[in-house]
Design a protein that fits this description.
- It is a single chain.
- This protein has three domains: about 5-15 and about 355-460, Jelly Rolls (Sandwich), CATH 2.60.120.380; about 30-200, no CATH class; about 210-340, Cysteine proteinases (Cathepsin B, Chain A), CATH 3.90.70.
- The protein is globular and about 70 Å long.
- By secondary structure, the protein is an alpha+beta fold.
- The two termini are about 35 Å apart.
- The strands form six sheets. Strands 10-15-11-12-13-14 form a six-stranded antiparallel β-sheet. The chain has a four-stranded mixed β-sheet with strand order 1-17-20-19, with no helix packed on it. A three-stranded mixed β-sheet has the order 2-6-5.
- It has helices spanning about 35-45, 55-60, 65-70, 80, 105-115, 120-125, 175-190, 200-210, 225-235, 310-315, 325-335, 430-435, and strands spanning about 5-10, 25-30, 75, 95-100, 140-145, 150-155, 160, 165, 170, 210-215, 235-240, 260-275, 275-285, 320-325, 335-340, 355-360, 385-390, 400-405, 425-430, 440-450, 450-460.
- Strand 12 (about 260-275) and strand 13 form a beta hairpin.
- Helix 5 packs across helix 8 (about 200-210).
- This is Calpain catalytic domain-containing protein.
- Belongs to the peptidase C2 family.
Length: about 450
């Protein structure tokens, strides 16, 4: 650990892109090697059972099911649930599945966004897996966890009651990629119970390893729709949430929206209606049903004010959980928008030419515990990182973009037991006096109570 207040050059951080933990060489989660386990099962002619996430009540977790339902749970392989199980049927789509009794709409909303990005989807969900050749009851998935890609193996025993899946279920009973993906993420979280409650940004980060931006709908930027349009164009994942309200969660409001619920942003579109341009946002409910019934909903008469071509392209009158609304209604009825992308190119519309670096550190009581800026005597002892933005990477208007993403590693296996610390950072431009003695165009980032920080500076 460096001495208090030392200013590290973050651009010299070790590049782990080609080592283990990268997208091409993920680490084995819990030291379980997929290929070795599969070879072992095939040689011995056995079906895999995961002893690190066994098919029992511990993997379901506490307080999710009542005692009578828990006693009725039977873990079944897909061949015992459906006559012709398949991993994927007719491609992967957000309309493949619906939420079960588990309160993980945040996770399923993120899967809905993931289905639009084939490259990212293939990284998370190896689509070559089948129930046919070399099947041994073993599957694997990949997630990005706090700076490292991990490969997670599971057996395909799924929790059922009366032969029906308890949690996420496919619209086609023969398709099982959603249920198996959910089980793999439950293993990462510690149990199915540990997946209860969350925000889309958490899963979207684990699906991409990208950068995240959260926009509060109470104070949206004036160019919100244009920002969302660019995010969609550049392949970003987008999710959002409704306010909790005074009543219990999952309450369906008269307008058709669900309180305290996560949704996927699945599209943006600008249409000409009655001589005026209208900016629309398309959203999807991970329940797989239940929709907004206000302006521009499926049966709204406003669809008769647009061209036949636009109506044919956009309108689908099905209770599939997907609907349109104006950007104004979106800002009124949603609390926040999460945007997650491999690169922050959607911010300015330029191609991905950002240079990224990551530094892992920690807050140590008594040495680098400087507190916030209110603690002026000790603030300087916080870890500091120096970032240089060269003049050739400056925008034409003279601006220099830098994006700082701060994340905190958990200290426990079970997600619901993790207690996050209050963390933050401040960015300062080095003064001319200091700059003359050191490096030009330099910024210093003070990390407050941090476990890990990733910085990206625009080299456009």
């Amino acid at each position: 650990m460096p001495p208090p207040g030392v200013c590290l050059n973050i651009l010299e951080a070790r590049n782990k892109q080609d080592g283990y933990g990268s997208a091409t060489k993920p680490e084995n989660f819990l030291n379980q090697d997929y290929q070795q386990l599969k070879q072992y099962c095939l040689i011995r002619g056995v079906r895999y059972i995961d002893d690190m996430f066994p098919p029992d009540r511990n993997s379901i977790g506490q307080d999710l099911l009542n005692s009578s339902d828990l006693a009725r749970v039977e873990w079944l392989r897909p061949a015992k649930i459906s006559p012709n199980p398949s991993f994927v049927l007719d491609g992967v789509s957000r309309f493949d599945f619906g939420q079960g009794v588990l309160g993980n709409c945040w996770f399923l909303a993120s899967i809905g966004a993931l289905t639009f990005q084939n490259d990212v989807l293939g990284q998370v969900v190896p689509l070559e897996q089948t129930f046919d050749e070399n099947y041994c009851g073993l599957f694997h998935f990949r997630f990005w966890r706090f700076g490292r890609w991990v490969d997670v193996v599971i057996d395909d025993k799924l929790p059922t009651i009366d032969g029906r899946l308890i949690f996420v279920h496919s619209k086609d009973p023969n398709e099982f990629w959603p249920a198996l993906l959910e089980k793999a993420y439950a293993k990462v979280c510690g149990s199915y119970t540990d997946m209860s409650a969350g925000t889309p940004e958490e899963a979207m980060m684990d699906f991409t390893g990208g950068v995240h931006m959260c926009i509060q709908m109470s104070d949206p930027p004036p160019n919100l729709w244009e920002l969302m349009f660019r995010a969609g164009k550049y392949g970003a994942l987008m999710g959002c949430g409704t306010p909790q309200g005074e009543t219990s969660a999952n309450t369906v409001l008269p307008n058709g929206l669900v309180q305290g619920h996560a949704y996927t942003v699945t599209g943006v579109k600008q249409l000409m209606s009655q001589g005026k341009l209208v900016n629309l946002v398309r959203l999807w409910n991970p329940w797989g049903k239940g929709e907004w019934n206000g302006n521009w909903s499926d049966r709204s008469p406003l669809w008769q004010t647009v061209s036949a071509d636009d109506r044919e392209m956009c309108l689908s009158v099905n209770d599939d959980g997907e609907f349109w609304m104006t950007i104004q209604d979106f800002c009124e009825f949603y609390t926040d928008l999460d945007v997650c992308s491999l690169c922050p190119d959607f911010l300015d519309g330029n191609s991905c030419r950002w240079k990224s670096s990551m530094y892992e550190g920690r807050w140590v009581a008594g040495t680098t515990a400087g507190g916030c800026m209110n603690n002026r005597d000790s603030f300087w002892t916080n870890p500091q990182y120096r970032v240089k933005i060269n003049n050739q990477y400056t925008h034409k208007d003279g601006e220099k973009n830098m994006l700082v993403s701060l994340m905190q590693k958990p200290d426990k296996r079970n997600r619901r037991l993790v207690q996050n610390l209050h963390i933050g950072f401040s960015v300062f431009e080095v003064t001319k006096q200091v700059r003359d003695n050191f490096i030009s165009d330099t910024f210093t980032v003070h990390i407050l109570h941090s476990h890990s920080a990733a910085l990206l500076n625009d080299t456009t």
